[in-house]
Amino acid sequence: MPTKRADIAVIIPALNECENLNLLLPALKRVLAGLDLAAEVIVIDGGSGDFTREVAAHWGARVITQREPGYGGALIAGFKAATTPFVVTMDADLSHCPAFLRDFWQHRDRAEVIIASRYIRGGTAEMSKFRLMLSRILNYSYSRLLALPIHDLSSGFRLYHRTALSELVLQARDFDIQEEILVRAYVKGSRVYEIPFGYRPRGSGNSHIRLLKFGWSFLKTLKRMRDLRFSEKCSDQKVALAAWSSVKISSPQI
Asked: Fewest CB within 10 A of the end CB: N or C in the chain?
């Protein structure tokens, strides 16, 4: 008897996250079962030195060894492995609540890219003041300088229609891949919809973000995305240029 094709794939980049995965994966499994979805959970291991691979396999996840460097390399590996109509990306550190998949699934027909957004009405972000300031500045800069009607471009908790990811040529290999995916999909004509989301601090372990490398990669990607946004390849180039001409730079609310 043929196996039912999965409806959705959940991609989880992980580096030394065995303790968090031991809590996340069973919770995720319960949520997916409650939605009656045929799902595949894909854990992309970035070279963990703990029991990340073993824990993931224990809970039935498909484990893939990451070949390209960085967070971006992990997502690209996950996209290549997933063949389902819908793809979710989420973090392994418990900052993304599995129950939110119900919201994603409920709104899946609203757009080709659904974002769990911290920065729209009803959204929250539990993080240090310094990190919150950097995040708000980053998102404000991308939104304003690229004339995009999107508030949380750096959220890694998303639901994609497969069509939004097809034929995207991605250059970023760090956390800036989040912005690149979003801008390239939007320029190609994909609709983007934001749902208010409550971001919470990671569980055990330490963050893998390195600020200097993080900042430099975001600046380079911003330059590339600005060139793309106002190019003839953009589906709403004239609208973007008109929006850009009216932009007045002011400080973001932090």
From this structure: N
Tokens of 161: 């229609």
Report residue 195 as tokens.
Answer: 């749902």
Q: Tokens in use for 231?
A: 């190019």
pTM: 0.88
Q: What whole-number distance in Å separates Cα of residue 183 and Cα of residue 125?
A: 23
Q: What are phi and psi for residue 249, nearest 5 degrees?
A: -75, 125
**Which of 167, 194, 192 has the alpha carbon at shortest distance from 182?**
192
In this structure, are strands 62-65 and 39-45 parallel, antiparallel, or unpaired?
A: parallel
Q: Is the dihedral of CA 18, 23, 28, 34 positive or negative?
A: positive
- Please give the structure tokens belonging to residue 245: 């001409």
Domains of the chain: 8-245 (3.90.550.10)
Instruction: Output b/e per residue, 102-131; b: 16+ Cβ within 10 A.
Output: ebbbeebeebbbbbbbbbeeebebebeeee
pLDDT digits (tens, 9 = 90+) for 41-54: 999 999 999 999 99
Task: For residue 111, give the nearest of 143, 141, 150 by alpha carbon.
Answer: 150
Residue the block writes with tokens 């971006």: 72
Name which of 37-46, 116-125, 211-220 the model is least confident about: 211-220
pLDDT of residue 252: 44
Orientation of helix 70-81 relative to helix 177-188, angle to 10°: 50
